[in-house]
Structure formats: C-alpha cells, structure tokens
Design a protein that fits this description.
The complex is a heterodimer of chains A (468) and B (270). Chain A is built from 18 helices and 16 strands. Chain A is α+β, with helices and mostly antiparallel strands and 468 residues long. In chain A, the strands form three sheets. Chain A has a seven-stranded antiparallel beta sheet, with helices on both faces. A five-stranded antiparallel beta sheet of chain A has the order 5-6-9-7-8. The longest helix of chain A has 17 residues. By secondary structure, chain B is an alpha/beta fold. Chain B has seven helices and twelve strands. In chain B, the strands form two sheets. A nine-stranded mixed beta sheet of chain B has the order 9-8-7-10-6-1-4-5-12, with helices on both faces. In chain B, strands 2-3 form a two-stranded antiparallel ribbon. In chain B, helix 2 crosses helix 5 and helix 3 crosses helix 4. Chain B is globular. The chains are: A alpha+beta (468), B alpha/beta (270). Chain A: It comes from Lentinula detonsa. Chain A: This is FAD-binding PCMH-type domain-containing protein.
Chain lengths: 468, 270
Amino acid sequence: MSRLWHWSRRCSLVLSRQNSTLASRLNSITDADALHFAKVLSSPTSILSILPSISTPPEELDIYNNDWMGKYRGKSTTVLKPKTTQEVSEIVKWCNDRRIGIVPQGGNTGLVGGSVPLRDEVILSLSNMTQVRSFDPISGILVADAGCILQSLTDYVAPHNHIMPLDLGAKGSCQIGGNVSTNAGGLRLLRYGSLHGSVLGLEVVLPDGTILDQLTTLRKDNTGYDLKQLFIGAEGTLGIITGVSILTPPAPQASNNVILALPRFENVLPLYKTVKRQLSEILSAFEFIDRTAYDLAVKHGQGRALSEEDVKGAECFVLVETSGGRREHDEEKLNNLLESLLEADEPLINTGVMAQNPAQFSSLWALREGVTEAVSKEGKAYKYDISVPLSTFKECVDLTRERLRSKGLLNEAQVKAVIGYGHVGDGNLHLNVIAKAYTPEIQDALEPFVYELHPTEAQYLLSTASEL
Amino acid sequence: MRPSPARLLNILVPVKRAVDYAVKIRVNPQQTGVDLNVKHSMNPFDEIAVEEAVRIRERLPKGSEPINITALTIGPPKSIETLRTALAMGADTAIHVEIPESAPAPEPLGVAKAIRAIIEKHKDKEGVDMVILGKQSIDDDLGQTGQMIAGLLGWGQATYASKIDLNLEQKNAVVTREIDGGLEQVRVKFPMIITTDLRLNEPRYASLPNIMKAKKKPVTKLTPADLGVSFEPQMEILKVTEPPKRVGGAKVESVDELVEKLKAAGFNAV
C-alpha cells in the first residue's frame, strides 16, 4: 500500500508538476463551491479559502499546504475544518459529485509528503473534531474523534491509570485519525503491538459520503468482515476516518530506562536477544541510534549528553526501557541484566547509564526522540523509513553513505551526514540523509537506489514509509 | 581540624528523599499535607551538591591525597535508595539515620542538630571539612538547614552557591553566590557550610559500573538515639490548601469597552 502510494507520489514530483493522469481527471474547487461549504459548515472558522467569497489571507493556508519539513508544498486554495462526522460526509459527497479532489489531513506531521496536496486539492482537516466520545476505565476502551491529538488522549486516560498503546515523537501534534490512517508504529509497538491489533472499531466516511459506522466497544467481535483493517494504513485513500475506538493498556506502575554504549554495531542483535530473554515481559522499548545520530541530538540540545568517558569508543547506542507493575521487581531484573552484561567474558557493551529519576528518564528518551528535530535543525533531510532484516541496518546506512561519497556528494556543502536510528525491536530503520539543501542531484543519487539496496547477504524486503 | 594539601578532605553531603519534582501533587483529604503516595527521588538541589562534591574530587590535581565523600540522609527505610543514588554518582560512603515510616518529616532544626552530632562524632577520627547540601528541599522549600548547621557549629557559610573555587593551600574557598540583583563573591575558611543553587552544575547520569560498585559501598545505619537527638516537630501544620483556581478572563470588543470595564472594577486613571 505504502509503496504504491510512494511510487505515485514520486512520479508526480519527478514529472515536475506536469499534470499526471490522475490529477488531470480531478476538478478544482470553485468559488461557488466555497460559498456552499461556508453555508453548510456550522462555524466560520471551519473554512479558510483564498477564493474571493472567503478571502482568507494566503499565509494562513501555509501550515496546511506545507509539510513539517518544508520539503513538499501544496497549492490548495481551500481548507475545510468540519466539526462533525455529518459535515465531513456532506463535504465528501459534494466533492465526489463534482469530482473535486480532497486531501484528508490530521496533524500534518508526516514526513513523506502524504498529508499535503499535490496540486490544489481541497484540504479536509480533522483538527476541529476533538471530542472524546467515551472511555470505559474497566476495559480501557477509548472512543474518540479522529482529530484528537495523541498527547491529549494520553493525558485524558492518565488519571484512570491507562496509557495510549502508541507513542511517537510527534505526539504533541499528531492526531489519532492520522495515526490510524498511516498505521503508525512508534516507540511502544514492541510492547503493545500495532494499531491493527489495538484499534477495535472505526467510523469512516467513504468516498461517496456514506458514513460507515463500525465503532464498537466490544473487545472481541468476529461478526462479519473485519473492514476496519482495510482503513488502518490506507492513508485516507479508501475513506476518511472520523472516529476511533481503541484499546488502551494499563499504565505501568514502574518505568526505567538505560542507554547502553556499544563498541560495535554487530553487538546490537546479540544484545537484543539477551535483553529480550532476561527482561522478558517488562521490556517495553529497544531503540537504536548510531553515533552520528547521538552526536546530532546532543549538538542541538535535545537532551543532556552522557559524559565523555561513557561515550568513548561507542559506535552506537541502544535505549532500553522497562515498564512493569512493581518497581522492585523490575529493578531487580534490570540490575541482573546490567550486571551480567558488564561482567560477561566478552561484554557486548562498553558501559551505560541508568536514569535515577523521572527527569533523567525523560532526558534519556529525549536523546532518542529528539533525533528527528535535531536532523531538521542540522539541514534538509531525506527520510527513508524502511523495514529491513535487523542484521542489515548498518549495511543500509553504510551503502547509502558510500553511494553519496562515490558521487562526490558527501561534503559540508551538499550531504552533511547519513544516519540511522530506529526501532530495532520491530526491524524498522529510519535512514536519514541530511543535506544542506534539497537538490535534484542528491535526490537522483538516492532514488531509486535506496529502494533497490542489495546488501551482500540478504535480499531486502523494503516496505517504505513503513510508519509514515 | 584543618586540611593541609597532604591530608584527606572530608566532605559530608546531606541529601533528602523528597516528592519528585515532576509529580502532580494533590492536597490530602485531611488538608494536613500533600498525598505522599507518589514517586520520590533525591531533592534536585542535593543532587547538585553530590555532583559538586564529585567534581571537587575530579578537579584535584593528579597525585593529590584522596578525598572522602560521605552522603547522609535522615528518613524512613526507603531513603536508602537516595543514598544508593548518591553512591552511584560517586560518593564513597553513606550514613542512614533511620526514622520510622510513619514519623513526620524532620524539620530543619532537627536535621541541623543531627548533623552537628554526626560531625562531632567524626571529630575523633578525621573530622569533616565541608558540608555541602541543597539550598532548600522542594517539598517544604524552607531553605534553613544549611544556615542552621553553620549557626550551631559556628562555621562559616556560603549559601546559594553558583560557583565554588577551593584553595586547599590557603584553606579557604571563594564562592560566588546568587543574590537578588546579581552575584556576590565571598571567601570562606575551612571548615565551611555550602548550600547549592541551581546554576552550580548539572548532575551526571549514574553510569552502570558505578551503580554496580555502589551496591558494595558501606552504609552506616544510625538511630536518632545514637546521636542523642530528637526529631519531635517544633511546628504544627494547621492547614494545607490548593491555591484558589484562576477564573477565566473575558474578551472585549474595543478599547472603549476595556476602559469601561476597568472603571467599573474600580481602576482610575492617574
């Protein structure tokens, strides 16, 4: 799914804004349409349009038209922000009848240009649909509007001692509808599984405006076809998600984290095996960042750095998080693991640090979660979010770096760095190429190279943009 | 007892186990305090004190006599974890003055008297040259303990320290203090009391080898009776309430309306 989408997106970009066959069969929104929407939508803040009848200042549409990285820029004239599912349905029906293109948009935090228009399609933003519809503290089942921000939902269930089953760096801005539409993974997938498992039901507006209400609060429901699975990850191409029913797990009573410094990348997998075995059910995250990614995060002040002594000779770092029901039990397991790692005949790690309080816990996480922001501050990023066999992470990064070096592009003026970081536990690597500026030269060197990486041993099964 | 370059420097670092600063505190139903059934950790200013003691050791020229850093806490059995953290950061030994779980938190005067008793006990051995502790704890914000210790012992004090420059030969330290309106420098002789302020340093992460080593470092257990002190509260807390909730403001349509509302509320032009 993602790969098809990404291919069609690349095609339209490569053809440098000439009308692709798809786009040319769509109509643009007219002033009459805008007037109609202004009447139909309940609030004047629900429509922004540079068309004459509404005359919103053009700058106000920028945050909707442009992606988070400033790499992809759409040319939409109109943003609609319905407040109810019924309004969404009416918009979709109207546009369907007139073949007006729509781009559904949540938090616009995606990093592969999937949330902004290609040309002047209408942006249908879910940002005004922010109600929590219900929460059952016994089962943990939460029903919410698609426009609810992930962090807000986390805050909502926290007093009930529950947490959201997913967590990602964009949590302060991303919306649950967008998370579901893109089948977002994130930092907790290792422990709580993917949205294909934790989403119990969806309310979706189909392309003809029909409202498909499959919102259920049943934990197990085997009646009929499990249609929601089609919409999870469909990126808004099969329908617009307007409501989500999701299972929230109990909040851990105890959380700990450590950052381990590894002398060699080759130690990551054996380390993962050991950690999995010894920590067992309390392991909740296993994240990898290579040395360059760590240095960047520190350089841009994302979190407090480890001491010079601790990072000496480290080729990469692993962040391990534990979450469990009893602090003493978890600490015992964690201490045993760390002792066995340090006292092994051939230690897999150089050293590591452990958070002693919640402030340090957040700071260690910030070193990992802040890599994305550090990358944006360092330069313009080409982001490839790929699923590869674990053993080949480093090779992917090295091969990409080599490719750029061989094309003479690896220098301060062009590509400043190639880094890798990601969810080792899920086999998901974030490959980032940080350039001074986006140029066709760099783009050509990278694509389709990255999609066709053939490492020495294994054939890659790339599922690009596996999270975004 | 004064240190000379060829002797050990003995640093005592009192630390307190307090409600973690990130916790959302709630007043308890009896309105006598806050709900204490929440995460606790080392008082952040005390963490800075431990860090400074360790840095003092690291700043010593190579080949100097080693210094001894003793962490001290007065608290229930669980406070031992706070000592382990201090040991993991680099303290050498620790003292735990244990009080019952149900006992009220010790007050600054009680703590100061206990610390005096401990220092007097040490006099027979090598003595304590410096006591470095947080300027205040984040649960009661009283900010008195350091000053009281100095008063009871008759030692010099440099409080709200944001920079410490030791001069072991001259047996003194130049300390930069944070005060209203800026910074002040004082010179204080050994033995001294220093209380730490936020900008003194940023505490390190505890590294794994040190965490492992900390488990084997000695912790001396003492009771209030051993020290001849009592932690009987001198203060009685009458009531604890949350601050009044903020009421929402109102939006006005024009400057005239604003002026009208201000006048109605009793504000007049001067």
